[in-house]
Amino acid sequence: MSLKTIRRLFIISALYDFILGVIFLAGFRHVYNYFNIALPNHDGYVQFAAALVVIFGIGFWFVAHDPQRNRDIIKMGILLKLSYSGVAFYHAALGNLPGIWLPFAWLDLIFLVLFILAFKSLKR
Known about the structure:
The protein has helices spanning 3-34, 44-65, 71-94, 101-121. The protein is mainly alpha-helical.
């Protein structure tokens, strides 16, 4: 994977995670209500996870601007994408995952594969 492609990948990922995180940080109640998902007993459960997604979006922006210097952020991104897609697919297999979460799991699985390829393409 070329450096130019890696930069583009992480710009896309930065925007995706930042925007998604902001949407859930500020408006998760609307999203949950629209999709008829039960709200948690405390807003902080969703807001903290959303804030972490925003932070990762910022980290991916750093990677886009200097992939070699920020290789360790790529490692963290691989773990993020693995954890979300793994948990989501596990619950989907059990049959208790609301449908809204599955497209995000597939997107994160795609990002996971691309992040691994990007990481392997960078010189140590």
